[in-house]
Design a protein that fits this description.
The complex is a heterodimer of chains A (338) and B (306). Chain A has 338 residues and is an alpha/beta fold. Chain A contains 13 helices and twelve strands. The longest helix of chain A is centred in the middle third of the chain and has 18 residues, at 189-206. Chain B has helices spanning 2-29, 34-37, 44-54, 60-72, 86-121, 126-140, 143-157, 169-199, 202-209, 214-242, 246-251, 257-266, 270-298, 300-305. Classes of the chains: A alpha/beta (338), B mainly alpha (306). The A-B interface holds A 56, 58, 86-92, 96, 98-100, 103-110, 113-114, 117-118, 121-122, 153, 155-156, 166, 169 and B 201-203, 205-213, 216, 220-221, 224-225, 228, 298-301, 304. Chain B: This is ABC transporter permease subunit.
Chain lengths: 338, 306
Amino acid sequence: MTAPLLEVKNLSVVFDTEGGTVHAVNDVSYTIEAGETLGIVGESGSGKSVHVLAMLGLIPRPPGRIVSGSVLFEGRDLLKLSEAELRNIRGGRIGFVFQDPMTSLNPVLTVERQLIEPLTRHEGLSRRKARERAVELLDLVGIPSADRRIGQYPHQFSGGMRQRVMIAIGLACSPKLLIADEATTALDVTVQAQVLDLVRDLKKRFGTTVIWITHDMGVVAGLADNVQVMYGGRIMERGPVRSIFKQPHSAYTWGLLRSLPHGETRLTKRLYQIPGQPPDLTEPPVGDPFAPRNPFATPRCFTETPPLRQIEGMAPGHQVAAWYDLPALLAAEQGTER
Amino acid sequence: MIRYLLGKLAESAIAIWGVVTIVFFVTRILGDPSALLLPIGASPEEMARLQADLGLDQPLFLQYLSYLGNIATGDFGQSFQFGRPAMGVVLERMPATMELAFTALILGTLLGVVAGTIAALNRGRLAELVVMLFALLGQATPVFWLGIMLILFFAVDLRWLPTGGYGTPAHLVLPAFTLAVFVSASIARLLRSNLLDVLKEDYVRTARAKGLMPRVILVWHVGRNALIPVVTMIGIIMGELLGGSVVTETVFSWPGVGRLIIQAIETKDFPVIQAGVALIAFIFVVINFAIDLLYGLLDPRIRERR
């Protein structure tokens, strides 16, 4: 077996604030194989974006601080690289697509300028060559009359078109890994579907490895090979999409899936809502972070942090961090209801 | 764009009309200049003759109408003091004012931009504290006091520079520096806070995620956006300086427009006051217009809306 493209080991990130130390990411470990699409799901503050930004030096430091861990990318530990070395990787070997292209594109620079920047920086292209390549890229992401529109400013593009520009920027230098942070969140549902189609298509053509960060389980279902559910800065469950959607083993994943509208329930039932509030991460976390909101929590959940382990009888790679056996508990509940 | 320009032009005309009207009526409140112009003990007949010569015997409203008619043709009347066309008297003083204004502006802008950038990039460090302390002092120190202190130190004690007057580059140093201190302090404070805001923007993170060099990010992605409000401020300051820095010009005996207008007020030289204020209003309008155009260059969204 070849080495994975990205290997995150025991990554912990904190933010030093006036209100105390926020433990944003706690002991996160996972790997991504080349060509894989990993969907990272969680609510705001789950650490899903922060841990990715942190490992590439994109969180403000201070207040952010990486406390421990290693992140191997193509055999090199990103956390040990200097800022100059990281700069060479960012935008080159690793591309980014950010949320809300309205604010993520610079309003006073033309699309051309913003798109050729990574090309001249990483590929050493001349301005003219870079412009040609940039037009090709816009064409590739489905922007009509790219040659004319490239000279325009972001505000002259619609939201969906702006997101396409963002994707073109992320893919400019044919990165090995593309990280998309809530890339479709700010878009209308129909535009979102178009953009997801585009990403699927590009992935197929270039074999790019993708980390797709979102809070939307629906998006993940249509795009990812594997899902990783995060909560309170920890991985709660991860595994192949099918396996997780078929039989979630973490009460948090179960709650997320139940709160998705589908089929008849869309009209007839109130959507499920996970009770309670996200955890206050200024306290050092003890036990399972979801325990206070979890109707199935056991006493052990409050005192001891469950490790991520393979679930017996499920697809290989389907792992959960839970002390309780969710399918058994759900079955028992249904039994008593009848 | 043409509609926009016409609108601007109309706006400017109204602004200038407003200013010349206000200054006309305010100068009349100063009192009758004929008493000052004639030797003590002049007869009432002499008074009346002078008033008739100056047109001051007419009803106020008629005076106003002929005044408006005259300035429409560029005629601001004869200076009571100098007996020459008032606008000519004012324009003669413009080169001195412009020399001082532009020197101070360029010096102050350079200092302010450098200081503001240093402060923003050293957030929370000693460098920021030092720069901001000086900027606060620079803004809070009264210009006349700073001017006098500089004269006492560099001109009286050290004898390096002249105490005042006009002519050589050495004469320019102290007044230009005095004004530049205030200019740079204002710009440094504004630029620092703008830079800190822009540094938090998502597009700066995008620029960093592209692996761009810090220098490129600072100049192209942060600087362009942070400078837009600073340009407005520079415009306002330029207008103020070109209108004559009354206090500085007086402290350093600089023969500029500001000092001229003060003298004209003291001697109730109505035509000179009116010409001076009209010129300042005109300069303000022109600068405002230039700033507007510059804004469009810096921010494509504004260009679009026109």
